[in-house]
Write a structure and sequence with these properties.
By secondary structure, the chain is of the alpha/beta class. The chain is 41% helix and 26% strand.
């Protein structure tokens, strides 16, 4: 029975007596041995997997059929297997024929079983080393493909930037963001030229900080596309080090936040207009979270109630304490009636400022209800109508 570590040798030899001797010697050294007497049979046996072989001992002169070099080439065209040529020929032209074929040695017949055994073992070691290296290279290739696919699938622009501030590698999103057809067009590009001239000096200083290993927060810059158009980019930078701790460069991740910045600017302008309108009309805006009993007031609300120092958090009880004692029950009953959906919250009541000043406010509110129709929020406005009340 063949042991797990026993190697199988296929002997290709047309001389029956020589083949029998080789088989007996190899078996004496612990090999399992098969024999075929022609190149054609060797090719068929290997291609059809009829005879398993860890190594082939191939005679060169195989009689009237194809010779050993031809048989070896046909076998290697279908399967990678170590082949050692075993021949009595030492002529240069014969040896040169074998050099054109991937083989693992050339042994002259009658060199002795010790030399043959050593040659076989060396050939098998070389073959395994080659196989492992091939497998490692294949795994590396797959890893590189996986890395490239992952790198290109990132939706944000990613640039690997060297210590000279030039692009070493770029993903597809970076090319698209900056108006280029392919990432390769960005390789070697000075990243400072991707920044608008109005922000370039500031960006250059941040690059200096990153390349010196300093932590930097995300920054906003006006960037330039290939066609000269501009966009606002948010850049996150991370320093890259080699195994010795030396700075290699950095990774720059960029996303286009132009629409976000524009929306924030519009919102800021809207808030300014709202604050101007509410201030002119002496209107305060409030929002009561009924479930958590917390309230939000804008700045004008605190002015209406004469409160200079804004509390961190407060609820409806804080509001009640600001109401004139004679108006408290009326104001709260109106609020509860609105919560019960009996009538709209629309009431006038007096408030007492901390300095004792009394002002007349008008309150309007809207109740927000959940799916079960229970009140979950109430939002509204207060307006100072003191002068108007006096006029009436």
């Amino acid at each position: 029975m063949k042991s797990e570590n026993q190697k199988t040798i296929l002997v290709v030899e047309d001389e029956a007596i020589i083949a029998l001797l080789e088989k007996k010697q190899l078996e004496g050294y612990g090999y399992a041995v098969h024999h075929v007497n022609s190149g054609e049979k060797a090719v068929k046996a290997i291609i059809d997997d009829a005879l398993p072989a860890d190594l082939i001992l191939m005679d060169i002169d195989l009689g009237s059929g194809i010779d050993g070099t031809q048989a070896a080439q046909q076998i290697l065209d279908h399967k990678d297997v170590p082949i050692v040529f075993l021949s009595s020929h030492t002529e240069p032209e014969v040896v040169e024929k074998t050099e054109k074929i991937t083989s693992y040695g050339y042994v002259v017949k009658n060199s002795g079983i010790v030399v043959l055994d050593a040659s076989i073992k060396m050939a098998i070691k070389l073959f395994h080393a080659k196989t492992e290296r091939k497998h490692a290279l294949e795994q590396l290739r797959k890893s590189e493909e996986l890395y490239k696919n992952l790198f290109d699938s990132i939706p944000e622009s990613v640039l690997l930037i060297g210590a000279d501030r030039c692009v070493v590698e770029a993903n597809r999103a970076s090319a698209s963001l900056h108006g280029y057809q392919s990432p390769e067009e960005l390789i070697g590009f000075d990243t400072r030229l991707l920044i608008s001239s109005k922000d370039r000096e500031r960006a250059s200083q941040v690059q200096t900080d990153v390349l010196s290993g300093k932590e930097t927060a995300p920054r906003h810059y006006t960037e330039v596309r290939r066609d000269g158009s501009e966009f606002i980019g948010e850049i996150i930078s991370t320093t890259l080090y080699d195994p010795k701790g030396e700075v290699l460069g950095y990774i720059g991740i960029t996303r286009d936040i132009t629409t976000i910045v524009q929306a924030e600017e519009l919102l800021r302008e809207s808030r300014q207009r709202l604050e101007l309108a509410t201030s002119s009309a002496q209107l305060g805006i409030w929002d009561w979270d009924i479930v958590n009993n917390s309230m939000l007031w804008d700045d004008q609300m605190f002015k209406l109630y004469g409160i200079a120092e804004r509390p961190d958090s407060f609820g409806v009880e804080f509001w009640k304490k600001c109401i004139h004692p004679d108006d408290l029950s009326t104001a709260w009953e109106a609020c509860e009636a609105a919560l019960r959906d009996e009538k709209k919250y629309d009431i006038a009541f007096r408030v007492v400022h901390p300095d004792g000043t009394i002002r007349l406010l008008k309150g309007d509110g809207l109740v927000v209800r959940g799916t079960d129709r229970s009140a979950i929020r109430m939002i509204g406005i207060n307006q100072d109508i003191t002068e108007h009340g006096r006029a009436e």
